[in-house]
Amino acid sequence: MDLVLAAAIFAFGLAFGSFLNVCIYRLPLGKSVVHPRSACPHCQRQIAWYDNIPVFSWVALRGRCRHCHAKISPRYLVVELLTAGLFLACYGQFGLTLAALKFCVFGFLLLGLIFTDAETQLLPDWMTLPGLGLGLLFSLVVPVNDLVSELLPGLFSAPGAGASWRGISLLDSFVGAAVGASFIYGAGAIYFRARGIEGMGFGDVKLMAMVGAFLGIRLTIFTIFAGSIAGSLFGLWTVAAVWLKRMQRRMQRRHETAREARQRAWGSAVIALRRFPMPFGVFLGAMAMVATFFGNQLLRWYWRLP
Ligand SMILES: [Zn+2]
Q1: Disulfide engineering: 206 pairs with which of 100, 103, 128, 286, CB 3.0-4.6 Å?
Q2: pLDDT of 44 above 80
Q3: Whether 122 contacts 115, CB under 8 Å
């Protein structure tokens, strides 16, 4: 790893992270991401270039607007650092290759979707649909190497098969997208029947189509399983936290016995879970990121393959 190059890639990542913050804030509002210049959402004053330097400005201003001192979300800092870290990790894992570029693009879109879903419960088509298209296109230059290419090894390794690997890779990418989308569509339908509320929307279906196009079938299924486990743990943690908090409050304020408080608090914890919008996109997106860097190792370890 060349240190100068690594530093340049990190700085490049910070700049892209800064742009991603603009997308996260403006895309769900239907605003343009290029025009006008950034302004403080509180006092509407334009942000000077020296107050718009990634990471540095946020730290120098201690997370507040220079003029009205309104708080600036730490998300700006976090997204910039994560994007830079992502670009560096892609360079570390894949070197200066098309694969590194592919996973920079993929991770960039995932970070945008994760933070947009966390803040607004939306997964904008503006990110997922171009993402799906890019995933399919990248399969033509970076082989997806999944089930289709394994089921057709003769075609893949045949001499002079230079043109056909692209076709097979594209097919792998396409099947990945179809599997990802239909899995979430099916899970959403079951969830709707079971809980009577919409848990997973079409945003999640499109997100998983995009993930499938980039990662292929195997890692897409890994993403769905890991995302479901992470989501369930988060759900359990939410119920436990609400339950304990309500129980304490009931015992202090209403002087209920521990038993009464426990039962009533449990009731409100269940209602809280039912009303709380589960940000599935956050868990799916985060696990797709894990799948990108560690998925193959984890699968190999799980199946005890050499
Ligand atoms: Zn301001």
Answers
A1: 128
A2: yes
A3: no
Task: Return the H-helix or E-strand segment holding 207.
Answer: helix 202-253
pLDDT of the residue at 154? 57
User: How would you class 201 by CB atoms within 10 Å of its CB: exposed for 0-12, middle for 13-18, buried for 19 or more?
Assistant: middle
Q: Are 194 and 271 in contact (CB under 8 A)?
A: no
Cα 21 to averaged position of ligand 1 atoms, centre (Å): 17
Q: Tens digit of pLDDT for each residue in 240-283? A: 888 888 888 887 877 778 888 888 888 888 887 777 777 889 99
Q: List pLDDT tens digits, range 76-87.
A: 999 999 999 999
Angle in degrees, CA 245, 250, 256, rounded to 5 = 140
97-115 mean pLDDT: 96
User: Cα(284) to centroid of ligand 1, in Å?
Assistant: 34
Q: What is the pLDDT of residue 156?
A: 52
**In the predicted model, is pLDDT for residue 197 greater than 70?**
no
The CA 37 to ligand 1 mean position distance, Å, reads 14
Cα(290)–Cα(275) distance, rounded to whole angstroms? 29
Residues in the chain: 306
Partner residues linked to 64 by β-bridges = 71
CA distance 240 to 78: 28
Report the separation in Å between the CA atom of 81 and the middle of ligand 1, taken as the mean of its atom positions: 23
Handedness of CA 78, 81, 87, 92 (dihedral sign): negative
Among residues 14, 12, 85, which one has the least CA distance to residue 56?
14
Q: CA–CA separation, 264 vs 250, rounded Å?
A: 9
What is the CA(68)–ligand 1 centre distance, in A?
A: 4
Q: Are 281 and 123 in contact (CB under 8 A)?
A: yes
Contact, 261 vs 247, CB < 8 A? Answer: yes
pTM: 0.88
